[in-house]
Design goal:
Helices cover 71% and strands 3% of the residues. It has 252 residues and is mainly α. The protein has a 3-stranded antiparallel beta sheet with strand order 1-3-2. This is MerR family transcriptional regulator.
Amino acid sequence: MSYSVGQVAAFAGVTVRTLHHYDEIGLLHPGERNHAGHRRYGDDDLDRLQQILFYRELGFPLDEVAALLDDPGADPQEHLRRQHDLLTARIGKLQEMAEAVEHAMEARRMNVRLTPEEKFEVFGDFDPDAYAAEAEERWGGTDGYKETQRRTAAYTKEDWKRLTAEFDAIHRRMADLLAEGVPADSEAAMDVAEEHRRFIGRSYYACSHETHTGLGEMYVADERFTATYEAIRPGLAVYMRDAMLANAVRHL
């Protein structure tokens, strides 16, 4: 039994373009082709695709996925065991987050004030107020910081809700490209990076391509930024950085 690329894309919830890309980079070659040269996938190919998608969901870059799956000494059962362990760890963290949200909901319903420690224990040592003070210390004298302060001072609650929704949508589009295995220097990823840069320019401060690449580097270098993007999708911080850099090169 074999399946067309369209059927496999539908089974797996990926795009046909993703499967073509996996074939082109040698990650997943179809087991056969029909007389017209069209890709046909067998059961072994589907098993490999399942493994690829497991590792991709866990944030592994495509080159590492290929190295893991093509290791001649690797046991398929060991792949599943490793994936299970990683997923279990992630589930545990998400359960902690869900419990914290439930705790906050219940406290609000009962009109109980949580202590600062209770509110933020799930986030570790990150202190938003300290970070704001750090931002002022580091960039307070720059034109960009002053422009941001001037613009945001006039924003209403509805403005913030709209901006948050727009920014979240940009991040989701970038995360979807990462999940599909689309290269960070592809036209699609660079286009989203450019949209990200323009959003900053519209909403906060003039953001040149050079400034934008510096921002991308900070996403990776500063663990607080990295954690924000990793929470959206593992690997997103590096992917964002690479797409932002590729976009700058394209324009410069």
